[in-house]
Amino acid sequence: MSKSVLCALELNGDATDRKVLTEAARMAELDGAQLDVVNVLPDFGESWVSGFFEEHHHERAIKEANDRLQTLCKEVLGEERNAKVRHLVATGKAYQEILKVADKAGSDLIVIGAHKPELTDYLLGPNAARVIRHSSCSVYVVR
Fold first, then answer.
1. Are 100 and 130 in contact (CB under 8 A)?
2. What pTM, to 2 d.p., does this model score?
3. Tens of pLDDT along the chain (143 residues)?
4. Could you tell me where the DSSP H helices lie in 36-93?
5. Are 111 and 7 in contact (CB under 8 A)?
6. Residue 134, φ and ψ in degrees, nearest 5
7. Fewer Cβ atoms within 10 Å of its own Cβ: the N or the C terminal residue of the chain?
C-alpha cells in the first residue's frame, strides 16, 4: 500500500499555510509518500444565500482556489516537486471534506494548521479539533 500525506490549507494569505505546506512536504518526503493538498470552500449553492451570488460564482471560486493552491505550492515547493502533488478543491464543511478526502486518498497522515488561541476556541480552531477528533488516521497540527 502506498503512503499518502494530506495537507489541508486555508489559503487565507498568512504565513500559516506556508508553514503547514512545508511541514507536510517534509513529512511526505521522509516516508516517500504521495503529497495531496486540499482547500475547502464553503457551499453557498445549497443555502438560502445562493441567490445573492452570480450564476457561475461557485465554479469561478473553485478555479480561483485551485489557481491559488497551485501558485502557493510552486512558490513553496518548487515546480518539480509541485508537479507530483495532487491538488484538490472541495466544497462543504471544512472538517467533513478534509476527512472525506483523507478517506478517499487512503491518507496515512493529515497535516493541518491551528489558529492562535482566542477566547472562543482556546486550544485549536474548530476545524482542526474536529479533524483530530474524527480522523481514522494520525493528524499532525502545525502551530
1. no
2. 0.87
3. 469 999 999 998 889 999 999 999 999 999 999 999 999 998 765 555 555 556 677 788 899 999 999 999 999 999 999 999 999 999 999 999 999 999 999 999 999 998 665 544 444 568 888 999 999 999 999 98
4. 57-77, 79-82
5. yes
6. -105, -5
7. N
